[in-house]
Amino acid sequence: MSIQVNGTTTVRELVGQYPQTRKVFETFGIDYCCGGGKCLVEAAQANQGDLSTLIVAIEAAIASPATAAVAAEKDWYAAPLHELVGHILRVHHVYMKEALPKVKGLVRKVLHAHGAHHGDMLQRVHGLYQALDDELSAHLMKEEAILFPYIVAAEAHRQGASERPAACFESVESPIHQMEHEHESAGRTLVEIRTVTGDYRLPADACPTFRALYEELVRMEGDLHQHIHLENNILFPRAIAAESSRPSAVVRLSGGRAV
Ligand SMILES: [Fe+2]
Ligand SMILES: [Fe+2]
Fold first, then answer.
1. At what angle do helices 173-196 and 208-228 cross, to 10 degrees?
2. How far does the centroid of ligand 2 lie from the alpha carbon of residue 251, in Å?
3. Ligand 1 centre from 8 Cα, in Å?
4. Which residues have CB less than 5 Å away from ligand 2 (the ion)?
5. Fewest Cβ atoms nearer than 10 Å: which of 88, 112, 180, 227?
6. What pairs with residue 232 in β-bridges?
């Protein structure tokens, strides 16, 4: 089923049915992971962008064939939940656990070397990054220790392979709402870092370490968007729908893909 793209189409519908539109949203600075529920009018307004230009770019992305990498992506709307959880852990949690301390070291080095000329800006980046590091490290741990094992065990239980998993919450919606809240907070911090650095514009006296810091932060931002997209738009709605045995909004919005 194809989607008629207009101002009321949501970002989540588009990234669900046409993964290649993620690139368009990245280009327009539109948050497709935490802000997936926004319609295109709201998304364009939030970024002071032009709606018709955005729609033209989305239609062009939909009309063009997906890149080999996008086409080769697994259909996470249909794969077993334990496979999706495994993918998030292998690809995104492993990356983040390597990247967080690496970038922390770069922030410190650049602040030390360039503090004399760019101290105000670098001190703010240092403070924001420290908050991001603390929050994400704890967040990954909570998902790995509590939420993800529960989702995997609940799926096995529904398939008759194991006992109903014990949990310290009544419904999986409770820890999921907490994780979504933390995603929004991390996303806001990355937006602040982008703003403070002038969209990662390097100063004229930037050294290679300064450049490496900005490159790593941009990479981290892109990876986190994809990571949160998989959790907010696919894993969490599917886990909630499976628990309550009712069709999820994502299933309807993404053109009837199976859960
Ligand atoms: Fe995660
Ligand atoms: Fe998460």
1. 150
2. 21
3. 29
4. 231
5. 112
6. none
Q: pTM, whole model, 2 decimals?
A: 0.84
Q: Give the environment of ion ligand 1: residues with CB less than 5 A.
A: 143
| Ligand number with the minimum distance to the CA of 187 | 2
Alpha carbon distance 238, 249 (integer Å): 9
Q: Distance between CA atoms of 4 and 15, rounded to whole angstroms? A: 14
- Check: CB of residue 230 under 8 Å from CB of residue 76: yes
Q: Count the neighbouring beta carbons within 10 Å of the beta carbon of residue 111.
A: 18
Looking up tokens 């207009």 gives 6
Residue 228 C-alpha to ligand 1 middle, in angstroms? 7
Convert the pLDDT of each residue in 85-134 to its tens digit: 999 999 999 999 999 999 999 999 999 999 889 999 999 999 999 999 99
pLDDT tens digit string along 180-238? 999 999 999 999 999 999 999 999 999 999 999 999 999 999 999 999 999 999 999 99
Which residue type is seen at 31?
D
